[in-house]
Design brief:
This protein is an alpha/beta fold and 255 residues long. It has a single domain, classed as 3-Layer(aba) Sandwich (Rossmann fold), CATH 3.40.50. 46% of the residues lie in helices and 11% in strands. It is built from nine helices and five strands, in the order αβαβααβααβααβα. A five-stranded parallel beta sheet has the order 2-3-1-4-5, with helices on both faces. The N and C termini lie far apart (40 Å). It binds thymidine-5'-phosphate (TMP). The site of thymidine-5'-phosphate has 13 residues, from α5.
Length: 255
């Protein structure tokens, strides 16, 4: 099978690629989907370092969409399918080398994209995911120092659409918080997993990874200042969904 050209990746070299995501169920790309259907799927992701405080806002945003009569698929990464949840358990507990970690993240993502995200978008649902590929660029690329170009290649394979584009979120809400404040919030909350046990320097690199990714794809990113009172953060989340045209079914239309 041929590798598909991607919208955001540098052109991958020759070699075997996986082909597009389940062509029978895949949704059209955002631009064409929203031009033709008022109930086109919307894909929103939440990102940020551990302790940034995104969790409660994810549920609140799902409720806000349901109040507008939309069906919401609420999901997470790594995870979201039975297979990906098994990989999640390994990823959050077991030590492994950075390539193994990156490949397992993308293996879990492929199963998630094929079996949950694309089918839900094709049904015209709102998909809200707690983390997606930006986390791999931030944690494995930034935190672990793993090769950014290899991640681009894997992203292009795993998120390939039949039309040759790469599936990307319509909107990514990046909860930006300094690692020192995030660490204070996490302290004593529960037994830390493999990533939460990492050093302050690791989380500084993760935060820089998110900033780099945001800088590279600014149109779909909304940076949320997470070091504010909860109601102000929520107001910023709603404002971002509005200004990115998501309520109106025209994501990408930044006001
Ligand atoms: P969380 O669900 O509590 O956020 O835990 C998921 C952890 O996995 C979190 O520490 C970030 C990490 N992670 C990566 O390192 N790479 C990825 O691609 C994803 C999705 C998550």
């Amino acid at each position: 099978m041929n590798l598909l050209p991607t919208a955001t990746a540098t052109a991958p070299g020759p070699g075997p690629g996986p082909g597009p995501v389940a062509a029978a169920t895949a949704a059209p790309t955002s631009a064409s989907a929203h031009a033709t259907s008022p109930q086109a799927g919307v894909f929103i992701t939440f990102e940020g370092i551990d302790g940034a405080g995104k969790s409660s806002h994810i549920g609140a945003l799902a409720d806000a969409w349901r109040d507008r009569g939309r069906t919401v698929t609420l999901t997470r990464e790594p995870g979201g399918t039975p297979l990906a949840e098994k990989l999640r358990a390994l990823l959050l507990a077991d030590a492994m080398d950075p390539l193994c970690e990156a490949l397992l993240m993308f293996a879990a993502r492929r199963d998630h994209v094929c079996n949950v995200i694309e089918p839900a978008l094709a049904r015209g649902e709102v998909v809200i995911s707690d983390r997606f590929t930006d986390a791999t660029f931030a944690y494995q690329g930034g935190g672990r120092g793993f090769d950014w170009q290899v991640l681009h290649t894997l992203e292009g394979w795993v998120q390939a659409l039949p039309d040759g584009h790469t599936r990307q979120p319509d909107l990514t809400l990046w909860f930006d918080l300094t690692p020192a404040v995030a660490a204070q919030r996490l302290a004593g909350a529960r037994e830390p997993d493999k990533f939460e046990s990492e050093s302050a320097a690791f989380f500084e690199r993760v935060a820089a990874g998110y900033a780099r990714r945001c800088h590279a794809q600014p149109a779909r990113f909304a940076r949320i200042e997470a070091d504010q009172p909860r109601d102000k953060v929520w107001a910023d989340v709603l404002a971002a969904v509005h200004t990115h045209g998501c309520w109106q079914g025209q994501p990408g239309q930044v006001a």
